Amino acid sequence: MKKFMNANAARKTKMVVLLVMMFFASSLACAQNEPKTAKPLVGVEVVRKVALLDIEGKYYQDVVMSFKPVAPDDFIASKYRVRIKVVDNTGKSIYKKTFRDVFLYVFSDGQVQVGKPNFNQIVIFKSKLTDTNDNIGVIREKEGIY
User: Fold this and answer.
1) Burial class for 111, CB neighbours closer than 10 Å (0-12, 13-18, 19+)
2) What is the pTM (predicted TM-score) of this model?
3) Separation CA 111–CA 105 (nearest Å)
4) Is 102 helix (H, G, I), strand (E, B) or coil?
């Protein structure tokens, strides 16, 4: 009888240990790298210093980009818009445009995207090639960035 109770207790202990291990393994599986997601920003102006900017094949260095999303109001406009302004280090305006029917996304790693889901027209990201993590930008109005 005693031998049967020891075997039963050992079996229960193994089950508890297995249950605890499965719990921790499932929590670690959920905490893996998830795809980055963000909601569109509205009512906030985002400013980024960009070391290298590619606008439709023309390159600019040391510019400041400002993004200002505008939410639709039913009276004047019914689509989201994002105003983009690019200024060089002397203060001269290089690029100024309002994109219509697009959204502004800012991710936790500092990446900025302007566009529709799965079709970005502007992307600003941190360079992993330099120690200073400079921002690099690409603007493609027509064909987009995939």
Assistant:
1) middle
2) 0.68
3) 8
4) coil
Taken as a whole, the chain contains a residue count of 146
Q: Which residue has the tokens 């959920």?
A: 30
Q: What dihedral angle (degrees, nearest 10) is formed by the CA atoms of 144, 109, 98, 79?
A: 90
What are the structure tokens assigned to 108, written together? 């936790």
CB atoms within 10 A of CB 122: 25
Instruction: Report domain extents, the chain.
Output: 1-32, 46-139
* Cα atoms found within 13 Å of the Cα of residue 28, Cβ hemisphere only: 6
Summarize pLDDT for 34-74 with one digit per residue, the tens: 556 677 788 889 999 999 999 988 999 999 999 999 887 75
Buried b (16+ CB within 10 A) or exposed e, 15-51: eeeeeeeeeeeeeeeeeeeeeeeeebbeeeebebebb
